[in-house]
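INFO batch 0412 | record 1 of 1 | parsing
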Amino acid sequence: MIFLNNFIFIPIGSYEQHGPHLPPDTDFLIAKSIAQNISPVFKGMIIERIKIGISPEHEGFKNTKSISQKEFISQIEEIIKNYPNNYKFIIINAHGGNIDTLKSIQKLNKKKILVLNTFSLIKKVLEKIRTSDIGGICHAGEFETSIMLYLYPEKVILSNLKKSDVIYIPALDPNYNKEKLKNWVTINLSKSGILGDPYHATPKKGEIWFNTLIEKIKSCIEKNFM
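INFO prediction complete | emitting tokens
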């Protein structure tokens, strides 16, 4: 299959506290690594311009930065307008707080924008190999810590963790099958900023989950744009 060089990959995450053991740009680093693995397959290019997301739920922690929905949309529109109409934009999003806004952007640009959210793509595989109970995979827990241990082990400081940092909030877990918690604020639920259980994280789980994401995203792009 021959690809034209008209694919633009935009990794998007956030800049927010991720407990005492992960860097604040964890979400962006994960999205960036996904884009770096996939863009060569489609002979595309990567634009890393958007490094701060919509994170009001994580405000109150010193390592959190957040932008408004208006500014977020403006940054994406600024990128898109600089390319001809035949270009396709694949947004790799690794932060839940961006999802609703990205949905609205994609809805207005269905033929040229594809938004892919990491948690949504991997729910079944999360359930298959996770070892934490429901509530262990939310924010800076088993999933994100595993991915970071696989991709950026030098940025993970597990020695900073304490057992008291572990907080299970089942209604925030991607594998929770009942009504999800709404209008929550992290600092009201967890003093450490962790919503989940990073003690269940391993590099091997991170490798499996990351490679699964790569394959699923490739498939989505082919289905939508090929």
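INFO post-check: The longest strand covers residues 7-12.
INFO record closed
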